Amino acid sequence: MDKDGYGKHGCNSERAHRVAYKQFVGPIPGGMLVCHSCDNRLCCNPAHLFLGSPRDNTRDMIAKDRQHWVGNTTERQAKIVKSLLAAGFRICDAAFIAGCKYSVAKLINRNKCWQYVQALELNA
Questions:
Q1: What are the residues facing 36 on neighbouring strands?
Q2: Residues 13 and 46 in one domain
Q3: Quick check: is 2 in a domain?
Q4: Are residues 17 and 48 in the same domain?
Q5: Residue-range definition of the domain harbouring residue 90
Q6: 37 has pLDDT over 80
Q7: Tens digit of each residue's pLDDT (9 = 90 or more) over 68-102
Q8: How many distinct structural domains can be found in the chain?
Q9: pTM score of the predicted model
Q10: Are strands 33-36 and 14-15 parallel, antiparallel or unpaired?
């Protein structure tokens, strides 16, 4: 298991669900994620796996209310957080200014949520 709770395959540390998808379903296009309909990170059942963009994955997470505290963050707040972090602000300050939780700002910083959102252009 890797640090994010996903199964690993072999010594190359590729995530097991991605290996299963490639083996039983087909290739994974660049930029696409292999998502779990069952929400079990260790699952490798090809019937439970589907391709999706980071945006699709975030929408799926919100629709299933897996992390409602992330779902309460708006796309605009995520853009503000990304912009402030890019400008050198600390995560806690970016979260405060954007009006979101520190834990969500940390996830945004690590690209664990709101991956598809681009930072706003900040005028000097």
A1: 49
A2: yes
A3: no
A4: yes
A5: 69-109
A6: yes
A7: 556 678 888 899 999 999 999 999 999 989 888 88
A8: 2
A9: 0.55
A10: unpaired
